[in-house]
Amino acid sequence: MSQLPAFRELQNFIGEQTARKPHRTEPKPETANQLTQRIVKHVRANGGYATRQQSTGTYRDDLKKYVPSQQRAGMPDVFCIVEGRAVLVEIKAGKDKLSAVQKQTIADLERAGAWVYIAHTFEGFQEWFTAQFLTPPF
Predict the structure, then answer these.
(1) Which residues does the UniProt record annotate as the domain VRR-NUC (predicted)?
(2) Cα(128)–Cα(60) distance, integer angstroms
(3) Residue 8 maps to a domain
(4) CB–CB of 129/43 below 8 Å?
(5) Does 21 fall in a domain?
(6) Strand 58-60 relative to strand 65-67, pairing
(7) Which of the four, 8, 21, 79, 94, has the lowest number of CB atoms within 10 Å?
C-alpha cells in the first residue's frame, strides 16, 4: 500500500506534462485572400465596382501548359471604380512588403491620376475608404 501515494504522484506529474495547452486567445491574422475578399465586398456594398486582378496566367488545354498573364508586372491586386475614379488596392498581409516593381507601378498609376491604397488591414482600408468616398465633402 505504501506504493500507492507514489503512483498517484507519478500520475499527477504525467497529467500535468501532457495536459492540453490553452488555445491562442488572439485571433489569427487575416490572410491576403481574406483581406482581398473583404475589400472587394466593401467597395461593392458602397456602390463601387471592384474586382480582383488575375495575374497568375492561364492553363491552355491545347498547349498543355500554363501561359503567362498579359498583365503588367507589379499591378495592384484589386481594381475598383468609385464615383468615376480609378482606385487600385495592393494587398499586403503579414510581413509582406512592396517590391521595387510594385513601387514603380504604383508611382506610374498615381502619376496617371489613379488612386492607390496599400492595404495591410481591413480596418485601415475601411477608414481610408470612408474618409475619401463616404464623408462629406465628396
Answers:
(1) 44-123
(2) 40
(3) no
(4) yes
(5) no
(6) antiparallel
(7) 21
Q: Distance between CA atoms of 69 and 55, rounded to whole angstroms?
A: 6
Distance in angstroms (rounded) separating the CA atoms of residues 84 and 49: 10
pTM: 0.74
Asked whether the beta carbons of 122 and 30 are under 8 A apart, the reply is: yes
Per the prediction, the chain carries an average pLDDT of 89
| Number of domains forming the structure of the chain | 1
Q: Which three cell numbers stand for residue 99?
A: 517590391
Residue type, 28: K
All residues at 6 or more sequence positions from 121 whose CB lies less than 8 Å from its CB, including other chains: 30, 35
Q: Look at strands 58-60 and 78-82 and give their pairing.
A: unpaired
CA angle 12, 18, 19 (to 5 degrees): 85
Instruction: Work out the average pLDDT over 128-138.
Output: 87
Nearest to 78 by CA among 45, 47, 41, 107: 41
**Is 132 a residue whose pLDDT tops 60?**
yes
> Any idea of the CA torsion for 5, 11, 12, 17, to the nearest 10 degrees?
150
Hey, what amino acid is at 41?
Answer: K
